């Protein structure tokens, strides 16, 4: 015979199994809550980093600017945090309620009655726990619905296209190697300035921001590694002008200056004699310029034109001498000549200053340097075709306007029209 009544034995086992399942739910719930909490901390840390980037990036009304994209990302991340927080609260409520003793009655000394009490208590506790959990999940549902409504406006295929375009363009820049080695010509057959540098120069030339002292502000070792990551998103509102100047300075360093070693003594000699006859200096320097490769001539012409724009700006305090101090040595002195000219530094600076002052005599066509239509310069890579043809119709750039605090929204800007208007 059984030691216990079959009914009592079945009821006991059923009740114990039910309690074990309940305890298992408590354990697993607590584990999930802990993991969600850990995820929340990382997302909040990410949010802090994004906010810091926003504070340091150039404020912009452009819907294609880096700052605007950070705002969109920040808003999205905030929405995901709300969903996770609601989910965490719901599971935490479930675990806590399952642990609670909802009845304060004393358990009977009679075995059958006590078993019945425990049986009903576990079921009522579980029912209440899941009821509260479902109530909390309504917040999760609300946040997820809001999130889905936000992203239902997105055209995922277009987002993917733009993302791939941006990635490919940035990779193209990252693979750029401006150095010449083994007599290999890395420039295009028509010997033009590389598109990456040309884009930087045009951006700098037409930037509406103050450009005084930009070359002096951009230490290459700090600026270029940061800028090269964002160069694919470059427009007049994405980066500080001194960052863009850092890219140009780095390029000058990598190609080993625009001047060949054999020409350095010639420019020094001509500059020393310039105080006697400046017209003779112009003639000698023109002859030297004719001996350097065409792409370096183009680069020198663009740099002198850019310097001219800076010095001629009515609000600028930057003189030809200031600019010569900032970039003269980078432009005119190859690495292997640094020791040779250490006592002639002032003469090199003077030479570059004279080049700025007589740029129109050295390059009669210098006024044509920045006349190329901007959409041609910027359409070298896929993402700029998207920008200038105004093909971006997704939330990321137009419909999704992040909350800026006072119910202000960022207006959509056709940057193509803006850029064309300045030429």
Automatic annotation (TrEMBL):
This is Rho-GAP domain-containing protein. Transmembrane segments: none annotated. GO terms for biological process: signal transduction. GO terms for molecular function: GTPase activator activity. Pfam families: RhoGAP. Residues 176-363 form the Rho-GAP domain.
């Amino acid at each position: 015979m059984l030691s216990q009544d079959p009914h009592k034995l079945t009821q006991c086992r059923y009740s114990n199994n039910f309690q074990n399942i309940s305890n298992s739910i408590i354990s697993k719930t607590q584990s999930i809550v802990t993991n969600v909490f850990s995820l929340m901390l990382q997302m909040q840390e990410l949010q802090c980093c994004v906010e810091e980037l926003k504070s340091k990036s150039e404020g912009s009304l452009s819907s294609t600017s880096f700052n605007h994209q950070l705002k969109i990302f920040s808003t999205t991340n905030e929405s995901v945090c709300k969903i996770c927080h609601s989910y965490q609260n719901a599971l935490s409520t479930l675990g806590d309620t399952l642990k609670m003793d909802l009845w304060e009655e004393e358990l009977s000394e009679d075995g059958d009655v006590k078993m019945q009490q425990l049986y009903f208590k576990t079921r009522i506790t579980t029912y209440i726990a899941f009821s509260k959990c479902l109530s909390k999940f309504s917040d999760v549902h609300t946040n997820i619905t809001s999130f889905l409504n936000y992203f239902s406006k997105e055209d995922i295929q277009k987002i993917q296209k733009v993302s791939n375009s941006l990635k490919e363009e940035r990779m193209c820049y990252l693979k750029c190697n401006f150095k010449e080695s083994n007599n290999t010509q890395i420039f295009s057959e028509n010997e033009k300035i590389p598109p990456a540098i040309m884009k930087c120069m045009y951006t700098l030339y037409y930037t509406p921001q103050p450009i005084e002292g930009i070359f002096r502000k951009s230490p290459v070792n700090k600026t270029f590694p940061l800028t090269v990551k964002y160069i694919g998103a470059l427009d007049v509102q994405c980066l500080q002008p001194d960052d863009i100047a850092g890219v140009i300075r780095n390029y000058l360093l990598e190609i080993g200056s625009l001047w060949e070693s054999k020409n350095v003594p010639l420019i020094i000699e001509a500059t020393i004699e310039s105080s006697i006859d400046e017209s003779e200096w112009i003639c000698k320097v023109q002859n030297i310029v004719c001996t350097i490769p065409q792409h370096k001539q183009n680069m020198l012409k663009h740099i002198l034109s850019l310097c001219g724009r800076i010095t001629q700006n009515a609000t600028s305090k930057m003189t030809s001498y200031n600019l010569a101090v900032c970039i003269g040595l980078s432009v005119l002195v190859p690495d292997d000549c640094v020791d040779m000219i250490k006592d002639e530094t002032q003469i090199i600076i003077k030479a570059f200053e004279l080049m700025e002052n007589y740029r129109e005599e050295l390059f009669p066509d210098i006024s044509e340097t920045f006349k190329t239509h901007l959409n041609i310069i910027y359409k070298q890579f896929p993402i700029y075709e998207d920008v200038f043809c105004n093909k971006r119709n997704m939330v990321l750039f137009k419909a999704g306007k992040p909350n800026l605090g006072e119910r202000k929204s960022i207006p959509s800007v056709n940057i193509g029209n803006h850029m064309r208007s300045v030429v």
